[in-house]
Design goal:
Length: 194
């Protein structure tokens, strides 16, 4: 499996990037999010996923590991292929897709070309719990900056606590602790508030 490629971006289009890695050109299919992230760069690293079918071997490229991981989650859903997953990642940012699935927002998912009502419902049913339990990279809580509070939520989620419960416990804890409380203290107190 090819985990990533690093090299010169020889060809850049909104759907395709050719990366020259020591004289070998890798043709990668990309989302608009990835294209936007690298459009001003001459070289760099792209995480990859090799999709093998009867008729083709297609290499997909991602500017961020979180986008690749979401892509893999999306294609694990019955009826959602690699092309549809790439279309989803082109229509919305990964954190927006994750939020829509976790919140059960079928309308937002249906706004993406190629996603109908049944597909949106299937995505929510199959991925809501998985995505809700994963610790997301970057700030995931609305209204909460990436800080000690967000790190505490990530730690609680990593311990197996559902994100909504973890967020409530941390918010409750932060109201009763000093503003400069340590991460360890916040986690311990939040565990008591569950």
């Amino acid at each position: 499996m090819i985990a990533f490629v690093r090299g010169q971006f020889v060809v850049k289009t909104p759907a395709r990037i050719v990366v020259d890695v020591n004289g070998v050109g890798y043709d990668l299919q990309v989302s608009l999010n990835t294209y936007a992230a690298i459009s001003n760069k001459e070289s760099g690293l792209l995480f990859t996923y090799l999709h093998i079918t009867e008729n083709a071997h297609t290499l997909y490229g991602f500017a961020e590991l979180a986008e690749k991981e979401l892509f893999l989650q999306l294609i694990s859903v019955s009826g959602v292929g690699a092309t549809t997953a790439r279309m989803m990642l082109s229509g919305m940012k990964p954190e927006e897709i994750t939020r829509a699935i976790v919140q059960g927002n079928t309308r937002q998912l249906e706004s993406i070309k190629g996603i109908g009502k049944k597909s949106a419902e299937r995505l929510i049913v199959e991925l809501k719990d998985k995505l809700g339990k994963q610790a997301l990279q970057g700030p995931a809580m609305a209204g909460m900056p990436h800080s000690v509070d967000a790190d505490a939520v990530h730690a609680l989620v990593a311990l197996g606590i559902g994100r909504p419960m973890a967020e409530q416990a941390v918010k409750k804890t932060m109201g009763s602790l000093a503003a400069d409380a340590s991460l360890e203290t916040i986690i311990k107190e939040a565990l008591k508030n569950l």
